Amino acid sequence: MKIVLSGVDTGAWSLVALQVILEREGHVVRVSADPLGACRRERPDCLVLSTALGDPGLDVLRGVRADSALAGMPVVIGGRLRTTREALLALGYDDAFPVAATDPGGAVAALRAYLACQSRRSMMVALARPPASHIVCRP
Predict the structure, then answer these.
(1) Cβ atoms 88, 115 nearer than 8 A
(2) pLDDT value of residue 16
(3) Quick check: helix, strand or coil at residue 34?
(4) Helix, strand, coil: what percent of the chain each, to 5?
(5) pLDDT band at residue 130, thresholds of 50, 70 and 90?
(6) What is the maximum alpha-carbon separation in the chain?
(7) Alpha-carbon distances of 22 from 59, 63, 87, 108, 136, rounded to whole Å
(8) Which H/E stretch holds residue 61?
(9) Burial of 70 by CB count in 10 Å (0-12 exposed, 13-18 middle, 19+ buried)?
């Protein structure tokens, strides 16, 4: 799966660690301070926003949803979130992975599971579409 990874907070050092984890899972990851520009160039399967200070990244989410070429791309957010997962889903995120003080690895595990599910779903859609040479037209 091709992923653009961006930090909502400029000082999010955890981006490097998250990039390594996702690449070890087999994902192609592009880290960018300009998520909209990177998404327009890379055409990823998913945009992952990471936040250490709780910024909800609404400007990025709105920019993706307003761009007709990107509007259907999944956008997820993870990190130390100031609001609930439910509130972020209501704002338009496809999923949210808050880091809990008692389980800091739980958010990464949930993100990995989400991306694995998205990868399988993308693969199933691709496999369900027969090549054009196999399309039979009947009168």
Answers:
(1) no
(2) 80
(3) coil
(4) 45, 20, 35
(5) very low
(6) 63
(7) 24, 24, 26, 9, 40
(8) helix 58-66
(9) middle
Most confident range, picked from 9-13, 44-48, 54-58: 44-48
d(CA 39, CA 36): 5
Q: Which helix (H) or strand (E) holds 114?
A: helix 104-128
pLDDT-derived band at 124, boundaries 50, 70, 90: very low
Given this model, what pLDDT does residue 94 score?
A: 94
In which element (H, E) is residue 110 found?
A: helix 104-128
Amino acid at 85: R
Token pair 């909502």: residue: 8
Cβ 81 vs Cβ 51: under 8 Å: yes
Tokens of 8: 């909502």
Total residues belonging to the chain: 139
